[in-house]
Amino acid sequence: MHPTTLETLLFLEYNRTLWDPQLVASAVQQVERRTRQGVE
Predict the structure, then answer these.
(1) pTM of the full predicted structure?
(2) Which domain of life is it from (predicted)?
């Protein structure tokens, strides 16, 4: 597992009250769209 992935998972677990699955799915979709467009 990449260290950034571990850090992200730990952050999400610790701060569970700040997010919901829909918010995470939306963020993942935004990143995927930007990646396909060549924007980072």
Answers:
(1) 0.57
(2) Eukaryota
